[in-house]
Amino acid sequence: DIVMTQSPDSLAVSLGERATINCKSSQSVFYRSKNQNYLTWYQQKPGQPPKLLIYWASTRESGVPDRFSGSGSGTDFTLTISSLQAEDVAVYYCHQYYSTPYTFGQGTKLEIK
Amino acid sequence: EVQLVESGGGLVQPGGSLRLSCAASGFTFSTYSMNWVRQAPGKGLEWVSYISSTSTIYYADSVKGRFTISRDNVNKSLFLQMNGLRAEDTAVYYCARDGSLDFWGQGTLVTVSS
After folding, report:
1. Does B107 reach chain A within 8 Å, measured CB to CB?
2. Which residues of B touch A95 (CB under 8 A)?
3. DSSP string, chain B
4. B69 confidence band (pLDDT: 50, 70, 90)
5. What's the sign of the alpha-carbon dihedral B98, B99, B104, B105?
6. Which residues in chain A are closer than 8 Å to B58, comparing Cβ atoms?
7. Whether B101 and A42 lie within 8 Å, measured CB to CB
8. Most A CBs within 10 Å: which of B101, B103, B104, B108, as the mutation test of the A interface?
9. What does the alpha-carbon distance between residue B96 and residue A49 come to, in Å, rounded to a whole number?
10. CB contact under 8 A, A52 and B58
11. Which pLDDT belongs to residue A107?
12. Which residues of A touch B46 (CB under 8 A)?
């Protein structure tokens, strides 16, 4: 199984400042024949289902503000929020769908400092 | 607009059974793979099962042999038959589209308790 490890577990950032969340997979999730990383990022607010933010590690889902960006390849990935807004308070998860069992990171709780 | 609506959750005793349903609309259901993902209270996300558009199926080890995923492309529905339920199966169960899990339903709560 591919183990996904996020860091940090929690993060407090001032409004307008940058937030960075890391995700490391225990093996590569780069699908060579598709030339894509099978890595997604989700945002989950209390009482709501997760919302897709980023797919293929760096492609922003339609309607997602451009302050959200994803980077990385292979085994190391980063979600960056360039200028934190109050509505970004949530838990963020990375997820690999390179192989089953699909797996998630443990989540990173983002709060306002 | 893509919509996924789960139903069928509830309170069940250990060892009991439940059948979850997910009604899909707003997209060509038959061409997409579908998944069940669960979230225990206060915990993270756990993938449960996958079914492809052609009914290739995978399960998490934690549910293999107890849960059965199926789909009805005519009625645009996804199902999860859960047998031999345990306390640790208590969770909100979400259906989600595609391997990328690009759309999720609101979830249905399954509580396993005596």
Report:
1. yes
2. 45, 101
3. --EEEEE--EEE-TT--EEEEEEEESS-GGGS-EEEEEE-TTS-EEEEEEE-TT--EEE-TTTTTTEEEEEETTTTEEEEEE-S--GGG-EEEEEEETTTT--B---EEEEE--
4. very high
5. positive
6. 100-101
7. yes
8. B101
9. 10
10. no
11. 98
12. 104
Burial A1-39 (b: 16+ CB within 10 A, else e): ebebebeeeebebeeeeebebbbbbeebbbeeeeebbbb
Nearest Cα of chain B lies from the Cα of A36 at a distance, in angstroms, of 12
User: In this predicted model, what pLDDT tens digit does every residue of A67-77 receive, in sequence order?
Assistant: 999 999 999 99
